[in-house]
Write a structure and sequence with these properties.
The chain is an alpha/beta fold. Helices cover 26% and strands 19% of the residues. It contains seven helices and eleven strands. The longest helix is centred in the N-terminal third of the chain and has 15 residues, at 78-92. The radius of gyration is 19 Å and the shape is globular. It binds uridine-diphosphate-N-acetylgalactosamine and manganese (II) ion. Uridine-diphosphate-N-acetylgalactosamine is lined by residues 70-75, 110, 112, 136-138, 158, 161, 175-176, 198-199, 201-202, 231, 234.
């Protein structure tokens, strides 16, 4: 038929939209946590990935353009494991995506939230991403029906993590892995830059979302499952509760519009785009 022919031509030319539900999902998947040299993983995706760890499905036009933003410092054992699991996972979901590793220089306490702001701004300079997934480097998804896309409301993705007994620890939690559209992230002025050291920054984002009239959406626990790679517990920031309590006064002034940083170095590696960032705000 005529429409069948048009369909075939569109498919061949790559203009056909990818189906709403990717056709080749497995559901629960095996993760592979054995460490492997970066070069070996690079070879595996040599002809598939674009420079910088970007991907665009060949079989259809992706519905979502997703930047995966990963805050990073000194977790070198986790990085290759993260990459070798995430790439095949995302490819199967037929998403157009890029993985961005935002590394903080030494000298100050780690500031996960500010690195997310930097990742958002720098990735946006390179391409018109419309969806952002903020992702701890140590979390590996266990079910590929957990789509890395941005729904109508911000989505908390790491609902059921092994170390928490595959249960949501508390209802407003937004840490681990979360997804926001560009406009949602802009609407809340991104993350606060005031959280140095461990804890609180995710709850502050949760407060920002609520304040802006969003609600947190989630996949069910049998789908939004993750495992966390082993690491030592970071020293908690003693000021995290105080910061959190004062947070709402600063939504407008502390965030995307106030983050100060220098990009020391950046590079499109084969499996990811890398930014080395010095944060310039006072600790
Ligand atoms: C929880 C949250 C996390 C964040 C953190 C408090 C979950 C599942 N995770 O993780 O999202 O809110 O508490 O800040 O709720 N990182 C480095 N180098 C460092 C420290 C951190 O790369 O020295 C990065 C890395 O991507 C890591 C992430 O920041 O996965 C979160 O830090 P964590 O894994 O030490 O904290 P955790 O597991 O308690
Ligand atoms: Mn962790």
């Amino acid at each position: 038929t005529k429409s069948g022919l048009i369909d075939m031509v569109m498919t061949t030319l790559g203009f056909k939209m990818c189906p709403l539900v990717p056709p080749n999902l497995d559901g629960p998947i095996e993760v592979n946590t054995t460490s492997e040299q970066m070069e070996i993983i690079e070879q595996r995706y040599q002809n598939i990935l674009l420079p910088g760890g970007w991907y665009r499905p060949k079989e259809c036009r992706a519905r979502d353009r997703v930047a995966i933003i990963v805050p990073f410092r000194d977790r070198y054992a986790h990085l290759p494991i993260f990459l070798k699991n995430l790439h095949p996972f995302l490819m199967k979901q037929q998403i157009e995506y890029g993985i961005f590793i935002v590394e903080q220089t030494n000298g100050k306490l780690f500031n996960r939230a500010a690195l997310m702001n930097v990742g958002f701004l720098e990735a946006s300079k390179l391409f018109a991403w419309d969806c952002f997934v903020f992702h701890d480097v140590d979390l590996l998804p266990l079910d590929d029906r957990n789509l890395y896309t941005c729904p109508d409301q911000p989505r908390h993705m790491s609902v059921a993590i092994d170390i928490f007994g595959y249960k949501l620890p508390y209802s407003s939690i937004f840490g681990g892995v979360s997804a926001m559209t560009k406009s949602q992230f802009n609407a809340v002025n991104g993350f606060s830059n005031s959280f140095w050291g461990w804890g609180g920054e995710d709850d502050d984002m949760s407060n920002r979302l609520k304040h802006a009239g969003f609600h947190i959406s989630r996949y069910p626990v049998n789908i939004a499952r993750y495992m966390m790679l082993n690491h030592q517990k970071e020293k908690a920031n003693p000021k995290r509760y105080e910061n959190l309590a004062n947070g709402s006064k600063k939504f407008r002034t502390d965030g995307l519009n106030s983050v100060k940083y220098d990009v020391y170095s950046s590079k499109k590696y084969k499996l990811f785009t890398w930014f080395l960032v010095e944060l310039k705000m006072p600790e």
